């Protein structure tokens, strides 16, 4: 699995960005991650669309979209399902209709494989979360087993810590003192 300090892999994938007819899909590339505007990226993966734990996580990321935007961080959700399955799921599920971030489709499973998060038996993605800095470097990765949803507030806490570029003690939260040496 790729880890902290490594370059996020190159990719070009179709994503669902809207439910408006004719504007549903866009191509997102790894070039989107690297920028001079100091914009960070959180890419989070789920195993399968039309399941039970996954929409709770996606909806929670969406509820916190403003928190990520306030931190100059873009969100990208991803799975190995197709863009058509993503679009159908968004239309079908009340909590997913108004998503404010793209749902990336890794149907070839190449990006999940490059990241090392492809579950070996079913060939679906683990619940992986990557925080990527504006230079395209992975700064944090967390992977949950398929049955356990992640904690979006923890993703925000870690993002806050990384963005201070200082030493942050255990359980540190934004606004608290960092460590000095």
TrEMBL record:
Active site: 54
The organism of origin for this protein: Mucilaginibacter gilvus
EC number(s) from the headed UniProt entry: 1.11.1.26
Lineage: Bacteria, Pseudomonadati, Bacteroidota, Sphingobacteriia, Sphingobacteriales
Pfam families: AhpC-TSA (PF00578)
Protein name, entry field: Alkyl hydroperoxide reductase C
PANTHER family listed in its UniProt record: ALKYL HYDROPEROXIDE REDUCTASE C, THIOREDOXIN PEROXIDASE
Record keywords, A-Z: Antioxidant, Oxidoreductase, Peroxidase, Redox-active center
A GO molecular-function descriptor: NADH-dependent peroxiredoxin activity
Subunit structure, interactors included: Homodimer; disulfide-linked, upon oxidation. 5 homodimers assemble to form a ring-like decamer.
Thioredoxin domain residues: 2-164
GO biological process: cell redox homeostasis; cellular response to stress; hydrogen peroxide catabolic process; response to oxidative stress
């Amino acid at each position: 699995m790729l880890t902290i300090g490594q370059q996020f892999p190159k990719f070009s994938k179709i994503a669902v960005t809207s439910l408006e007819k004719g504007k549903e899909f866009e191509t997102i590339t790894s070039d989107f991650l690297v920028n001079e505007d100091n914009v960070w990226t959180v890419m989070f993966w789920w195993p399968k669309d039309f399941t039970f734990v996954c929409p709770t996580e996606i909806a929670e990321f969406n509820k916190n979209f403003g928190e990520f935007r306030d931190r100059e961080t873009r969100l990208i959700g991803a799975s190995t399902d197709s863009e058509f399955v993503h679009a159908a799921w968004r239309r079908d599920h009340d909590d997913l209709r108004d998503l404010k971030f793209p749902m990336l489709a890794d149907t070839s499973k190449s990006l999940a494989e490059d990241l090392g998060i492809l579950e070996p038996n079913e060939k679906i993605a683990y619940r992986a979360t990557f925080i990527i800095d504006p230079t395209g470097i992975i700064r944090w990765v967390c992977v949950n087993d398929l049955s356990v949803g992640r904690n979006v507030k923890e993703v925000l806490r870690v993002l806050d810590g990384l963005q201070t570029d200082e030493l942050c003690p255990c359980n540190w939260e934004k606004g608290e003192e960092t460590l000095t040496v």
